[in-house]
Design brief:
The protein is mainly alpha-helical and about 325 residues long. About 70% of the residues lie in helices and about 0% in strands. The protein has one domain. Strands 1-2 form a two-stranded antiparallel ribbon. Helix 2 crosses helix 9. The protein starts with a strand and ends in an 11-residue tail after the last helix.
Amino acid sequence: MQRNKKRIIGIDFLKILACLGVVGLHTIGKDSSTINRILYYFCGYAIPIFFMVHGYLLLNKDNLNYKYLIHKAITFLCVAFLWNCAIMIIQIILYKSIINPLKETLREIVVQRGFFFQFWYFGALFLVYLVAPFLYKILHSSKRVQFGIILLAIVVIIDILSIYFSKTVGEPLQSRISQPFRIWTWIFYFYSGGLIKKLNIQIDNKSRKILFFLLISIIVNSVYDYFVGYKIIGIEWAEYFYDNIFMICESVLLFITFNGIKIDNIRINHIISSVSSLIMGVFVIHVMVIKVIEKCYNFQNSIYNLILWFVVFLISLIISKIVSCIPILKGLIKL
């Protein structure tokens, strides 16, 4: 696999693709048109891909121990806390009011409430890290594939139960559990990323056959999400499709296809690596950009929303680049 400055180009590209999907989830506006809703559901691949990238990188290290994982978890929590401190300062300057940054950080990572609601992802990662050494041990044993099948069976069964709940109770089963605590989903995708690496699953991403299967999986998943999940079952939010077999197939095919990407152009490799290094900044800052835009725009126009999808990503990327050039601040976007 090609590397640029010891970075894996395929993984770097997947990080960019996943972050673009996250921004899409927050800007497309699912209620603005049918096309926007379908694109919104399509962007659901973003969170599975992020967890698969983490699993791919962590579960195949030479050694994985709690000391390393605790350090990473503390880093996530500190970054989240510092960003909330920044918001506290802004609140004091602009509105003469104060917030408790520690309380806000805990709300965000535990119940997905607060300014940086996307920090629930850090809470989910923290829980996955608690079982990561166990997953590492299983992955490097002869039972690795069987365990992966068990995890797949669990998420599919939960998805079936969720569909039943949606039809009988009026809401998906997962809606009763805060997103960080849907641990079965995150463990499945995390382990899947590690398994793909361990089994050395590689394909020619230029192969028409794999691109055909990827396109079919995207179409089938989109049709299911909109016409079955939304229209018939009544599922509104993309997060309730993560356990669905069609989303799983799409996410895995996306991962396998772009993980094996090969680019001979050194300049393009450099651009991909450079953008990827700023992705955590985009993940954090795009919500701030959206909050500013919301002061003068309500995200109800379908065309404008699609334009803003990329505008918000680019603005967040530029701000992240600026922050990365300031030594005292670059730690806020480099994890």
